[in-house]
From TrEMBL, chain A:
ABC transmembrane type-1 domain residues: 81-285
Alphabetized CDD domains for the sequence: TM_PBP2
Residue spans crossing the bilayer: 22-49, 80-104, 116-140, 160-190, 266-287
Protein family per UniProt: Belongs to the binding-protein-dependent transport system permease family. CysTW subfamily.
Species annotation: Candidatus Segetimicrobium genomatis
Record keywords, A-Z: Cell membrane, Membrane, Transmembrane, Transmembrane helix, Transport
Keyword field contains Signal: no
Major localization class: membrane
A GO biological process held by the record: transmembrane transport
Protein name (database record): ABC transporter permease
UniProtKB/TrEMBL annotation, chain B:
Species of the source: Candidatus Segetimicrobium genomatis
PROSITE patterns reported in the protein's UniProt record: TAT
Gene3D superfamilies tied to this protein: Periplasmic binding protein-like II
One Gene Ontology CC term in the entry: periplasmic space
GO BP annotations, alphabetical order: polyamine transport
Protein name, per record: Extracellular solute-binding protein
GO molecular function, one term: polyamine binding
Classification via InterPro entries: SBP, Sperm_putr-bd, TAT_signal
Keyword set, alphabetical order: Periplasm, Signal, Transport
Pfam families given in the database record: SBP_bac_8
First-listed, main subcellular location of the protein, grouped into a coarse class: periplasm
Subcellular location(s) of the protein: Periplasm
Length: 299, 388
């Protein structure tokens, strides 16, 4: 403590004047953070603990009934939440499995080809998200591209109905939608990687697999973690994809939440959202323990 | 009418000289029985023939279903009154009700609603009943729609009636044996072949009919439980829920649906127009729900005059005819029906959709909000069924 006091005493007047200026500089950012993030979250938290006869009324009594309902209600909300997490994990893993080699390929291509390939990766963003999801019904449907091709080549005489309106089609569309984030995050890590280490490992007799596992992968882990954050978390909150291609078996937690909001059950809806948010927060804290967040965000 | 015209000219003169506000002008016109659009029109002429001279305060903010308006009447309205119309769409009555309750007349001037949702809006103090006699286009309505008892508040009506239709199953006879009961929907041979519109409350009401509920929009807890069990039983046969009923056509056309369980009448013609099979309607012996909808003017609407003018404008027969030709379901405007009956292309359709039998509209089990905690109970049951 004494040392700390001494440090405080020895702050130069110039630094002392700089601190208020720094705080003023942070004000716009802090304002945006408070207005767009903190205040809405506080209101949501209040709603989730309030029972009111009035629509969106905060005058009422305190209750934990909404949370009790999330964890009871025949277990449906917990079960669907777990299902949502499992589907998000599978889709994120699939994005990594497909996206990593592709990012590696781009990073090792010539500069000219890198520009072309990166443009192709971001090209889907030029069209509407809704259209991109909807297009898959034309690809996977009974009269879709795949079924028509299979029939044309005589592989099947009946359409393969399992291609659409189930968990399979949901995951396929998730992978399609989110793979650009995976590729871009891992590509950024690969670009920053010290390639002389790869050459050194090869010179010292490491096999390609050993080189990848011991040199490349550890250096690109921040990119992998970043892609998990950018892919896994948004999938947890997906509504449009399960609605359009998920069918009856692809119902996710947000579908149930939206139904509650339509029934004007804002308190219960907020409680479901907070349970999800708590899970995401725990995930981020877990990631923070396993990787330096600063490196992750830089990636 | 000549006297009315003279009166409105005199009133318009007072308006120009600042002795009357626009609101007073329209109110006085209304008291004299002069339609809002007629008043706007005269006002425009007197103002020098430009739309801006007669411009009502705007913009007009309407929260509506997408089949309640079309581009032609929007364009004409802007040209006639100078008022820009901001349209917001919704799918569920509860959604529109919540939005109206949250922002009221400050942000919404006109809102669409289904039959028994009207009284709920009125009881919550969200809308002002309308004196239909002050609308020129209301004279074109079937008399039965001017006197709907559950919309009546004294001599006024909560809604300006627009359209109606039974919600019934349709099937593709190439794959489905003709049926007359909801029970057929549960046949395992229709696994993943049924498509429904995602309207949780109405689906629960429909399942209530299946499980024997007498009043499907006022089910007791045990009836809701039975309806939930019916939905769970039906679930393996449901391919998907669609967000909007206009998506049904493609499912019949591309052959992925054999049965649409909750479509409004006219789907057979829309499917045929799109090159699909000749699908058949079913009027189940257990009964069927139906919608009868319209527009309401929100209480303390910021642009009330424009709202009144809009209702008078959009409900004119010439626009209703266009709407029928596009949507192929019955409407409340009798004059439009008579015009359509003269057209060989649409005469049969008028009958097939029930447009010429307006009394049927009031014999249906009409959509409405379940009372008290009912809405919550219905949605909980729906969620429990689809998440199982």
């Amino acid at each position: 403590m004494r040392a700390a006091s001494n440090v405080a005493v020895h702050i130069s007047p110039r630094v002392g004047r700089a601190i208020p200026r720094l705080l003023w500089g942070l004000l716009p950012l802090a304002t945006i953070d408070v207005v767009l993030f903190v205040i809405p979250m506080v209101f949501m938290a209040l709603f989730s603990f309030r029972f009111s006869e009035e629509l969106l009324g905060l005058v009422g009594r305190w209750t934990v009934a909404h949370y009790v309902k999330v964890f009871t209600s025949e277990g449906i909300y917990l079960r669907i939440l777990v299902k949502t997490i499992v589907i998000a994990v599978v889709a994120t893993a699939a994005c990594l499995l497909v996206g990593y080699p592709f990012a590696y390929f781009i990073a090792n291509a010539s500069r000219r080809w890198q520009s072309v390939l990166l443009t192709l990766v971001i090209m889907p963003f030029w069209t509407s998200y809704l259209l991109r999801v909807y297009a898959w019904t034309a690809i996977l449907g009974d009269r879709g591209l795949i079924n028509e091709a299979l029939r044309f080549f005589g592989v099947t005489d009946q359409p393969l109905s399992f291609l659409l309106f189930n968990v399979f089609s949901e995951i396929v569309v998730f992978v399609y939608l989110y793979i650009p984030y995976t590729v871009l995050a891992i590509y950024a890590s690969l670009e920053k990687m010290d390639r002389s280490l790869v050459l050194a490992a090869m010179d010292l007799g490491a096999t390609p697999v050993q080189t990848f596992l011991r040199i490349v992968l550890p250096q690109t882990l921040p990119g992998v973690y970043a892609s998990i954050v950018f892919v896994f978390i948004p999938i947890l909150g997906e509504y449009v994809t399960p609605t359009l291609v998920g069918g009856m078996s692809g119902v996710l937690i947000t579908n149930l939440l939206v139904n509650q909001i339509h029934a004007l059950e804002f308190g219960f809806g907020a409680a479901i959202a907070f349970v999800m948010a708590t899970f995401v927060l725990m995930l981020l804290l877990g990631l923070r323990r396993s990787v330096d967040l600063e490196r992750l965000y830089v990636a | 009418m000549k006297d009315g015209h003279t009166a409105v000219q005199s009133l318009a003169q007072e308006l120009r000289e600042g002795q009357l506000t626009r609101r007073e002008f329209f109110r006085t016109c209304a008291r004299l029985g002069i339609g809002v659009m007629a008043a706007s029109s005269v006002l425009r002429t007197l103002g020098g023939g430009t739309a801006s001279a007669a411009a009502l305060p705007g913009p007009l903010n309407i929260l509506v279903w997408d089949d309640h308006f079309d581009e032609p009447e929007l364009k004409d309205f802007v040209a006639t009154t100078g008022v820009k119309v901001n349209t917001s769409l919704f799918d569920e009555n509860a959604d529109a009700y919540a939005k109206t309750k949250l922002v009221g007349g400050r942000q919404i001037d006109v809102v669409s609603g289904d039959a028994l949702w009207g009284p709920r809006y009125y009881q919550s103090g969200l809308v002002d009943p309308l004196d239909l006699s002050q609308f020129t286009s209301a004279k074109e309505l079937f008399p039965v729609f001017r006197e709907i008892s559950f919309w009546k508040v004294g001599t006024r009506s909560i809604m300006f009636p627009w359209s109606w239709a039974p919600i019934i199953p349709y099937y593709d006879p190439r794959y489905v044996t003709p049926f007359d009961s909801y029970e057929a929907l549960f046949d395992p041979k229709y696994r993943r072949r049924i498509v429904m519109e995602k309207t949780p409350v109405d689906i629960m009401a429909q399942m209530g009919l299946v499980s024997g509920a007498k009043k499907p929009y006022q089910m007791t807890a045990s009836e809701v439980k039975a309806a939930k069990e019916a939905l769970i039983r039906l679930k393996p046969n449901i391919l998907t829920f669609v967000e909007q009923s206009n998506q049904f056509v493609q499912y019949f056309v591309n052959g992925s649906a054999w049965i649409i369980a909750n479509a409004h009448t006219g789907l057979d013609y829309r499917v045929k127009q799109a090159g699909g099979p000749l699908v058949k309607p079913v009027y189940p012996k257990e009964g069927y729900v139906g919608f009868l909808d319209g527009e309401m003017v929100v209480k303390n609407a910021a642009h009330r005059d424009a709202a009144m003018a809009w209702l008078d404008h959009k409900n004119q027969a010439k626009y209703v005819v266009l709407n029928f030709q596009k949507q192929l379901r019955a409407l409340a405007n009798e004059k439009a029906m008579k015009i359509l009956q003269q057209d060989p292309k649409y005469a049969d359709l008028v009958h097939a959709t029930g447009y010429d039998q307006p009394d049927v509209a009031l014999r249906m089990i009409l959509k409405g909000p379940p009372p008290g905690e009912g809405l919550k109970m219905y949605i909980d049951a729906f969620n429990e069924a689809i998440a199982r």
